[in-house]
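Figure-free illustration: sequence to structure, shown twice.
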Amino acid sequence: MGKSKKALVMLSGGVDSSTCLYWAKKKFSEVAAITFNYYGRLKNEKKATVQLARRAAVTNLLEVNVPFIKEYSDYYKRNLLQEQSDLRLPSYIPARNMIFYSICAHYAELLDIKWIIGGHNSQDAEFFKDATKGYIKKINALLRQGHPVIGSNTPTILLPLSNLDRQKVISLALKMEVPLELTWSCYNEGETHCGQCYPCSQRFGAFRSLGIKDPVFS
C-alpha cells in the first residue's frame, strides 16, 4: 500500500462500510471518513454514520450534501419495481460510484490522502456492476490519467471486502469488534429494522447462518 499513512473511508452507516472503517483504523495511522447525504437519505443512516465515526474516534467526518442524487425508487413506485425486477433495483442510483468516488478523490487529493476505502462485498457486485473490482480498476486508471503530475501520490481506491460475502464480512466485523449494534441496513425509517426489505433479509440471514443474534435486536 505504499508509504502513505492516510485513508479516507466511504461510510454509509451499514455493516460493510463500518467494517471497512475499523479495518482502516488497523492499517493506517490517520483515518478520515466521508458520507453522502443524497435525496431522501434515511435519518437512521445519518445517525448511524455519526455514531460509528465517533465510536471509532474519527474526528474528520466529511458530510457531503448531494440532494440531486436519487434512487430509482424516488422516480418510480417501489412496489412496481419490486414486482417486476430484482429487489435491489429500488435502491439503485444511476452512476452512483462514478459520482461518489470522484468526489472522494477530490477531497482525498486536497487532504493529501492516498487511499480511498470502499465497502463493496462480493454479493454487491453480482447486481451492482459499478461495485465490481473491474469497474473500480477502471476508475483508478482514470484517476491516474487525470492527474497533471506523473508519479504523484494519486488517490487510489481499495476494496478490502471485495472477495467476501455477507457472512464473511460479519465474521470479520465481529473479529475486529465493530459495534454492529450501531449500524443501520434497513430501507425503511423506523425505531428498528423492519426485517422484511432486501437488505434486512440478507443481513439477518447472514447472522442466522453464523448462529449469532443480530446485535441491533439485543
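We now fold a second protein in the same way, so the two outputs can be compared directly.
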Amino acid sequence: MTRRVAFVTGASRGIGKACAVWLAKAGFDVAVTARTVREGEAREHSSTVAKSDTRPLPGSLDSTAALVRGEGRDALALPADLLDRASLGAAVATVLERWGRVDVLVNNGRYIGPGHMDRFLDTPIELLDKHLEANVMAPLVLARLVLPQMVERGSGLVADVTSSVAWIDPPAAAGEGGWGLGYAMSKAAIHRFAGVLHRELAGTGVVAVNVDPGFVATERMAIDMGEYGFDASAAAPPDAVGAAVAWLATAPEAAALDGQTVRAQELTWEHGLLPGWTGPVPNPA
C-alpha cells in the first residue's frame, strides 16, 4: 500500500500532539516538528515582557513520536523553530527524502513567548515581528514547500489552526481576559490563507481549511494561562481537535469544506468521533 504522510508543527504537546496521534490512528506516518526534543527541556514560555518563565513544560517530540509509533505507524521527530526558516526547509527536505511525500500539512505551531498577553504600548515592535514570522510566514513557507507535490499528485490537505481572535474583539484588555495584538493580527492574517488557496488550487484535488479549535485544555493552558483569566479546567480536550483533523484528512466529505473554517469541536461532536466526550465547550471570549 502507498504510504500516507502527515507533517504536523507544534507537535510536542497540546493540539499538535493530539493531531499527530489521531492522524497515526487514521493510518498516516507522521513527521512532527517543534523546538522541544526531550522531556524536561527549559525554554522561555512567559506570555508577558514583565517576567520570565522557563519552567519545563510537559511534552516533547520524543514523547509524541513514541505515541505515533504506539499506533503502529512510523514517526520522524524533526526539531525546528518557526522563527528559523532554514530549519523548516530542512525538516520538509528530510521528510520528502525519506518518505517521498507529504499528504497532510497541519500548521498548528505558533509563537510562544512575551507579547502574547501584553498591551500594545507595552509590546516591543520586534515581538510583533516574531508573531508574524512564526504564525504567518512559517506556515506559508511550509506550504510553498509541500504544495507542489500535492498538486502534482492530485490530492492533499493543508489545515491551518486558526482562532476566533482572528475575527472577534477581545472581551477585555490583554492580561485581563483578553489577548495581545500580535496574537490577534497574526491569526487574522493566516486565517485568509485557506480561502485564497481554495480559489487558486480549485480542481487540483488539494483542500485547504481553517481549523478553529475553540477553547482547549492544553498543557501550557493549564500551567500558564490561569493568571490571565483562562480556566483550563473548563476547556475541551486536545483530542477533540485531533479527531476532527484526522476526519478532515480521510473523509471524502471533507472536500466540500475547501476554503472554509471548520469548528473542530462541533465537527467531532456531530460525527461522534470521540466516544465518551460530553461535547463542545463555550469559548471564554
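Summary for the second example: The longest strand covers residues 206-212.
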